[in-house]
Amino acid sequence: MYPLVRELADDNIDVAVTCRVLRVSRSGYYEWRDRPVSGRARENELLVKYIEQIHADSRGTYGSPRVHAELTLGLGMSVNRKRVERLMRQAGIQGLYRRKRSWTTVRDPAAEPAPDLVNRHFTVDEPDRLWITDITEHPTGEGKVYCAAVMDAYSRMIIGWSINSHMRTELVTDTLGMATIRRHPDNNSTILHSDHGSQYTSWAFGQRLRTAGLLASMGTVGDCYDNAMMESFWGTLQLEVLDQKQWHTRDELANAIFEWIECWYNPKRRHSSIGMHSPVTFEALHTRSDQDH
């Protein structure tokens, strides 16, 4: 009851009256109030300030696992994850939770799909061995915005993306063009995995793949597990950007997606599947490790 007495006293309510109503000892309250704050309590107060700042820097998205990772990996602090969870709960700080998204691409039943070279084995031990691609959409006041992206399965880095008001083949060929310019993949050793969408089974996209020396791969029709990494990425984008507000114009949303990918997701956002590093940091550590050997 003593914290309540202090809170009411701060509101200019007489301590004696409050203690009498709450049936607590007035002398006991003063003894409690004047007692030195414990070292643990001071640590918790400071830790909550760090947590609040990390949560704000994450754009209000981080839950306790990523906050804990930022404290330990980013700031070098030694703190138990359960303690972080408890303090976040007490402070009313929580992350965002994703919802399931709907499918975007449309299959062309007359097209000849590429074979499945992945068979749900998305684990690779170096960059540019497996790329994954897909398309998503979101409404604005002017109409839908379509976004295509290419992810490197090794680091979860988005290495190519394109945004437009349509989902014609140019959307995916532009995305692939950005990825190949950025990464310069080795001929005939990099797999690009997609679904059976008509954009990916088109002649133009197939020609662009062959020119870049990439190996085409397609999963099972209508099976989200065959593109689980991209589904996870789109879910994160949906949660942290698309569903945050009503978007009035296509340019407004396109700029927000661009900023989120290049300024947050790739360089800073921590991923549980890569040791709670960001994609950029994870690849930098990998390159450094190779050079050391």
Summarize the structure.
The protein is of the alpha/beta class and 293 residues long. It is built from 11 helices and 5 strands; from the N terminus they run H-H-H-H-H-H-E-E-E-H-E-H-E-H-H-H.
What's the helix and strand layout?
Elements: H1 2-10, H2 15-22, H3 26-34, H4 39-57, H5 64-74, H6 81-91, E1 130-140, E2 143-152, E3 157-164, H7 169-183, E4 191-194, H8 203-212, E5 215-218, H9 228-240, H10 250-265, H11 279-292
Number of helices: 11
Q: Strand sequence of the main sheet, in spatial order?
A: 3-2-1-4-5
Query: Roughly what fraction of the amino acids lie in strands?
Result: 5-15%
* Residues in helices, as a percent range: 40-55%
Radius of gyration: 26 Å
Amino-to-carboxy terminus distance: 62 Å
- The pLDDT mean sits at 88
Number of strands: 5
What best-fitting shape do the alpha-carbon axes yield?
Answer: elongated
Structural class of the secondary elements?
alpha/beta
Largest sheet: 5 strands, mixed
Low-confidence stretches at least 5 residues in length (pLDDT < 50)?
none
Oligomer: single chain
Run of helices and strands: HHHHHHEEEHEHEHHH
Please, could you describe this protein's structure?
This protein is α/β, with parallel strands linked by helices and 293 residues long. It is built from 11 helices and 5 strands; from the N terminus they run ααααααβββαβαβααα. The chain has a 5-stranded mixed beta sheet with strand order 3-2-1-4-5, with helices on both faces. β2 and β3 form a beta hairpin. α4 crosses α6 (81-91). The chain is elongated, with a radius of gyration of 26 Å. The relative contact order is 0.12. The mean pLDDT is 88.
